[in-house]
Amino acid sequence: MMERNIFMENTPENKELSKTEKNQRCITVGVLAQVDAGKTTFSEQLLFHGGAIRSPGRVDRQDTVMDGNEIEKQRGITIFTDQAYFTYEGVRYDLLDTPGHVDFGPEAERALGAMDCGVLLLDASSAVSARAVTLFKLLRRWKKPVFFFLNKMDLEGASIAAAMESIRNRLTKDVIFLDSKHPFSFEGEAGEVLAERDEELLEQYLEGGIDPQKGRKVLSGLLANGELTAAMAGSALKGEGIEEFLHVLGQLVQTDYNPDAPFGAFAYKVRRTREQRLVYLKMLSGRLKPRDTVTFPREGGEPVQEKIHQIYQVMGSRLVPCAQARAGELVAVSGLQEAVCQTVLGQAEEKFEVPQMVPALEAQVLAADGTDHHHLFEILKILEDEEPQLQAESRKMADGTIQICVQVMGTIQLEVLKEMMSSRFGVSVEFAPPRVLYRETIAKPVMGYGHYEPLRHYAEACLLLEPGERGSGITFESRCHVDVLAANYQSLIRTHVFERVHRGILTGSPLTDVKVVLMDGRSHLKHTEGGDFRQAVYRAIRQGLEKADNVLLEPWYEVEVSAPAEAAGRIMAELSKRFAQLSPMEQYGDQAVIRGRGPVACLMDFPRELASMTRGEGTLSMGNAGYFPCHNPEEVIREIGYDKEGDPEYTSASVFCSHGAGFTVPWHEVERYIHSSLRIDPEE
Prior knowledge:
Blueprint: H1 19-22, E1 25-32, H2 39-49, H3 70-75, E2 82-88, E3 91-97, H4 105-111, E4 117-123, H5 130-141, E5 146-151, H6 160-170, E6 175-177, H7 188-195, H8 199-206, H9 212-224, E7 229-233, H10 242-252, E8 264-272, E9 277-285, E10 287-288, E11 293-296, E12 304-307, E13 310-315, E14 318-321, E15 325-326, E16 330-334, E17 344-346, E18 361-367, H11 373-386, E19 393-396, E20 402-408, H12 411-425, E21 429-431, E22 435-436, E23 439-442, E24 446-452, E25 459-467, E26 474-478, H13 487-498, E27 514-522, H14 530-547, E28 550-564, H15 568-577, E29 581-582, E30 586-588, E31 591-599, H16 600-603, H17 606-614, E32 619-629, H18 633-640, E33 654-658, E34 661-665, H19 670-673
Parallel strand pairs: 1-3, 1-4, 4-5, 5-7, 6-7, 26-27
Antiparallel strand pairs: 2-3, 8-9, 8-17, 9-16, 10-15, 11-12, 13-14, 13-16, 18-20, 18-21, 18-22, 19-20, 23-28, 24-25, 25-27, 28-31, 28-32, 29-31, 30-31, 33-34
Helix pairs in contact: 7-8, 13-14
C-alpha cells in the first residue's frame, strides 16, 4: 500500500549527485507531539507538498509512509522514529517522525541529536498538555530551534489566540506568531516581539515598519540561539498552512554542513532486518561512500575500524541504495557491527545529553512456550541493540534459577515488546507485573579508597564522591596531577567509572547523580596492568558508599488530568492520598484541569481509578518527571532486602600484599593500609 504513494522517479538508485544536489542545503526536521495531535498526518503532508509521495496517507487507512510497521498500523500510533526525505524550494529535507506516546519517549529523545530543528505540533482546540511540556523541555535541553504548528484549526473551538496564550502560560513567553499569508511582514504583535529583542529593529518599528529582509535575518538568529520560538497555524488533515510553513522553515533554519571537510557522523538509531544490521547516521561533515573504512572509539580499548558495505536513503520502510552520503544528510548504512546508538564516527565531536526519558519500571520476562532462557536472553539483547533502554539482564537467583528482566517505560511498551518477540522471532512470552526501578545517590561528599594488590598486581585509587545535579547520572573529573599518576592510567580510571552500573548499598539499585573525582592514585612500574585499576575503582566507589549519607530515589510521574469540574475535588483528594504534589486547579467552563507530580509506585493504577471516578469522562496524561527522594524508604529497603555483604561483584574491601601473598582488608580498615598520604575531609 505504501509503495503506490512514492514517486519512484524521485529516488533513482546509485545515481551520482548532480552539481545542484552537491551544493544543496540540508535541513533535518523532527516532528514531535503528544498522541493524537496529528503528527503523522502532518508528516505525510510535508512529504506530499515536497513531491515525495503522490498523495498524503492517513493513519485510519493504514497507508502512511511513516508508520509502516505492522504493529504501528494495528495500534494506530507511532512506535518507532521513522524517516523520509524530500526537496522543497531547493532545500533537501530529512524528516523524522517521532513517537508521541510516553512509553516510547526514549526513541523520540534519541532522535533529537540528529535534528536541526524541532516542530512541536499542538492541538489548537485544547490547552497545551503535560506531554507537550516535556517535549518542549527536551528540545530546549538539546538547544534545538523550536517551531510550533498549531494544528486542527478546522475543528470547532480551535483558536489561535487561545493556543498562543496557552503556549505563553505553559511553555515559553518568548514566542512569535507568523501569519501564513504574510509571515515576514512583522506588523502588529509580531513586530513588537522582534523590536523588543533588537535595537535596530526597534528603531525601524518606531519609524513605521520593520524591513522584512532584516527582520527575517534577526529572527533566524534568535531562533538558532534559543532566544525565541516561532508559531504558525493550519490543518494537517486538510493540508492547510503546510506549504507556507515549509517556506518559512527554509528561510529561518540555519545549517552549515561542510561536505569538503573530513568525514564525521554519529549513530542515532540501529535496526535489524532479516538480512543485515543497519546503523542510521547523521552526517556532520565530509562524505561517505560504500567500501569506505570508518573509525570510531571503543570504550577502554583501541579504536575500531569497520568498512561500509552499502549506503541507503530511507523513505519510510523502503531503503534506496545510493552512491554516497554527504554532510547534513540522514542515511542508513550496513557493515557496521560494533557501532551503537550515539557512537561518534570519524572526526566528529558530538556531545550527547544524559537521557531524560529513562525507564521507571522493570518486568520479569516469562517464556510462555518453553523457550530456553539462553535463547530468550539472546533475542532480548538483539532488541536492546535497537532500544538501549531495555537493559536486559539475566540474574542467577539464590535458589539457582535464572531470572530475565527488562526495563520499560510502561505497560504499552510491554505489550509491543510481546508482539515484536512473537512476530519477529516466533517466541511467545508473558511478563510478570512490573515493579518500580529505584535509584540511589548520596547527600554529602565522601572519600572512597580502593586498593588492589594481589601478587604481581598493583593499583590504588582515591576518589571523592560528590552529590551531582538531579538527572546528571554519573560524571567524572580528575584533580590528580599527571606527575602523581600518569595520564594513561587516569584515562583508564575514567573508563572504569563509566563501564558498568555501580550499585548502591541500600537496595542494590543503580547509583546516580554522583560526581566521581579522582584525587590521587598509585601505580607500579612493573606490576600494574589495566585491569588492576578496574578493581581499585570499583572498590573505592563502594568503600565511599559504605561511609556516605545514602539516599534512596524513586521515579515520579508528571500528571495532568482533565475532567468534569464536579469530580475535581475527589480527584485531587485521591491524588493527594497517593503522595502527589498538586498545582492550583484550573477551570475552563465545566472542565477542570489538575496538574501535579507524584511517585510512580503510587500512580501506576491511577488511570483505572480515574476512569471509575469520572465514568470514563476524564482524560489523563502521565510522563516522566525524573527521580526524587523516596516517600517510604524504610519500607522499600525492608521489602527489597538487599544484602550488601552477600554481593561479591560489588565488594567494598581492598586487597593488599604482605610477604608475597594477598590479603583482604574490610572497608572500615582500608584507610589504615592505603599507601597514598592523601586524607581529605569532604566536609571542609
